[in-house]
Amino acid sequence: MEWEDYVYENGVLKNKFGITDYEKLHQLEKTILVEKLTMLVLNPIEGNFDSNHLKAIHKYLFEDIYEFAGKYREVNIFKKPPKFEEYNLIGSKLDELLKYAKEKEVNTNNQFEIARFLGDFYYNLIIIHPFREGNGRAIREFLREFVMFKFKGYELEYSKIDSQNFLLGITEKDTYPLLLAFEINNALTKVNVKSK
After folding, report:
1. For the domain that residue 56 is a member of, what is the CATH number?
2. pLDDT > 90 in the chain, percent
3. 195 within domain boundaries
4. DSSP the chain
5. Average pLDDT of the chain?
């Protein structure tokens, strides 16, 4: 697949609606995603927190809009900073990272240690950038579900994150290495775990 296969001549992503106006596509995406993300809060996608699980989340979120929903990108994407993973390495790098994240032992008595781990995990997922579009939204949902799986008693409330700082934590990670951790720490909320 070539770069042009993903976009119309004016650079707008090819979509199932044939919309060639960026703003109209953006608004439609926003409308659809608000509903879908709400449904995922009520009924999260079940999985093993592997690459198939992440692909299933991406597919659910974007299948009404894009043909490539739930599929790895087949082109390189260049944004500076950061530099995203080469498309032909996505599968192996993602599998390696997800295996590491599931197995990594984190001190659950120290909330900031959890946040630091999650900040690094999020950053590395973004750097792999598995999909042509919608990486941030799919990865944030994956991370929200992952927190409930790995750190029982915690939830992520993204409304408590400063989005400017969050973006800065990604684009300027070398300068502000703990910024993602601080923002995720703000979003980590303790909840009562129901016993069965």
Report:
1. 1.10.3290.10
2. 91
3. no
4. --GGGGB-TTSPBP-TT----HHHHHHHHHHHHHHHHHHHHHSPPP--SSHHHHHHHHHHHHTTT-TTTTS--SS--B-SSSBPPPGGGHHHHHHHHHHHHHH----TT-HHHHHHHHHHHHHHHHHH--SSS-HHHHHHHHHHHHHHHHSTTEEE-GGGS-HHHHHHHHHTTTTSTTHHHHHHHHHEEE-PPPP-
5. 95
